[in-house]
Amino acid sequence: MLDDRGNTAAYLLYAFTRIRSITRLAKIDEATLKKAAETTEILLDHDKEWKLGKCIQRFPEILQKILDDLLLHTLCDYVYELATTFTEFYDSCYCVEKDRQTGEVIKINMWRMLLCEATAAIMAKSFDILGLTPVERM
């Protein structure tokens, strides 16, 4: 059995599928996300939002480092850091709020959804570079 904890491909894929499940729960399509990316102000009020935002911003720097030194494991380390940072964010910050009794979605925090999507986009690109096939469900 694959271990979905720690610095493993299964853990990284699980983090990616978690993001996809948040998007499915919110019932937001790609067009809505693209429009929101153009019009929504990103509010980084929570320290875990800041931490994730800073981690996301480092992606171009990581790619440049890999091009400079040809050490691909740097990307593996970064994606693991991104996945763990996302997990901390996910545990602390609600993206989709549901009614406790009905389970109906009552609020979608779009700026947090955009952080999720940015994380997923970076993970998908990293998986492509590393030769991993992302999955929507696990």
From TrEMBL:
SUPFAM superfamilies: Anticodon-binding domain of a subclass of class I aminoacyl-tRNA synthetases. It catalyses: tRNA(Arg) + L-arginine + ATP = L-arginyl-tRNA(Arg) + AMP + diphosphate. GO terms for molecular function: arginine-tRNA ligase activity; ATP binding. Pfam families: DALR_1. The keyword Ligase applies. Coiled coil: none annotated. It is an enzyme of class 6 (ligase). Residues 12-138 form the DALR anticodon binding domain. Keywords: Ligase. Its EC number is 6.1.1.19. The keyword Ribosomal protein does not apply. One of its GO terms (biological process) is arginyl-tRNA aminoacylation. This is arginine--tRNA ligase. The lineage of its organism: Eukaryota, Metazoa, Chordata, Craniata, Vertebrata.
